[in-house]
Amino acid sequence: MQARQPDLLRYVNTLQGTDSDPKLSYGNTYPTIGLPFGQHFFSPQTGKNGDGWKYQYRAQRIRGFQQVHQCSPWMNDYAVFSLMPVSGKLHVQEDERASTFHHQNELCKPNYYRVKFDNGIQTEISPTERGAHMRFSFPKGEASYVVLDGFLKNASITILPKERKIVGYVRNGLFIPENFKNYFVIQFDRDFKGYGTWTEGGKQIQHDKLEITGEQVGAYLDFGKGTQVQAKIASSYISPEQAQWTLDRELGAHKKLEDTKTAAAAVWNNLLGRVLVEGGTEEERATFYSCLFRANLFSRKFYEIDQQGKPYYFSPYDGKIYSGYMYTDNGFWDTFRAQFPLSNILHPTMQGRYMQSLLDAQEQAGWFPTWSNPGMSGVMLGNHAISILADAWMKGIRTFDPEKALAAYLHEVTGRGFWGGSNGREGWESYFIKGFIPYGKIHETTAKTLEYAYDDFCAYQLAKSVGNEYYAQIFERQMFNYKNVWDPKAGFMRGRLEDGSWVPDFDPIEWGGAFTEGNAWQYTWSVFHDLGGLANLMGGQQAFVSKLDSLFTIHSKFKVGTYGHEIHEMTEMVLANMGQYAHGNQPVQHVAYAYNYAGEPWKTQAQVRKIMGKLYNATEKGFPGDEDQGQMSSWYVISALGLYSVCPGTTQYNIGSPIFRKATITLENGKKFVIDAQGNNTEHVYIQSATLNGKPFDRNWIDYQEIAAGGVLTLKMSDRPNKNRGRLEVDRPFSLTKMKP
Question: In this structure, are strands 711-718 and 672-678 parallel, antiparallel, or unpaired?
Answer without folding.
Answer: parallel
